[in-house]
# Entry
Amino acid sequence: MRQLSSSALPETPPAGGEPAVRLHKVTKVYRTGGGAVTALREITLGFAPGTFTAVMGPSGSGKSTLLQCAAGLERPTSGEIWLAGHDLGGLSETRLTLLRRERIGFVFQSFNLLPSLTARLNVALPLRLARRRPSRQEITEVLASVGLADRAGHRPSELSGGQQQRVAIARALVTKPEVVFADEPTGMLDSASGRDVLRLLRDLAGAHGPTVIMVTHDPVAAAYADRVVFLADGQVAGELHGPSPQSVAARMTGLEIGGGRS
# Structure
């Protein structure tokens, strides 16, 4: 496993079969004026290297909180999270930022592209933030990998929604991350563009690709994944392997009408 470029982070390289992301008894409690809300309750999950997992659940089930904690964007109240060989609980905020920058890619529903920059410059941004000078060939290659080599000079306003999301995926990939987190990546796309993005995410994962973890509310989107993890009331409520849209929708219906854990 490659080392981070800044001051050494304590690292335990995963052995064969060790998850790329591992949560052990993770609980997240939000303190409010009226008391406390428990968003996650002792979640234990693993995400194997090179796999594509969708996370689903009813509104308020904790799926977005799970993604944020797994990615190191929020600290859990208790429990352990290991990401890309690092125990997140032992890292300072500075080192967490470094880990996210060099080991993790993010894809958001709203693309989050800078409107004044071309596709090429948007993709290069993570490298520039890491004080690296990306080569033109490096950026062209990653844009080509998402089918947009011929759109490198276009600004977001000159691209369709699906093309903007593919630029965002290229930006997530440019640092060669070990894990890509996607939060409702097709939420703002039409069905055809959404299918293109989902096929791209599916094809990313594999023996030589990153682990992809996607939060979605759409059974069709979830069916592109290798596995679907269901949450209800902040707890794991079951899994599906080799999912179909019909099997995902049926499981979600059971959760939404109070079918409980499965």
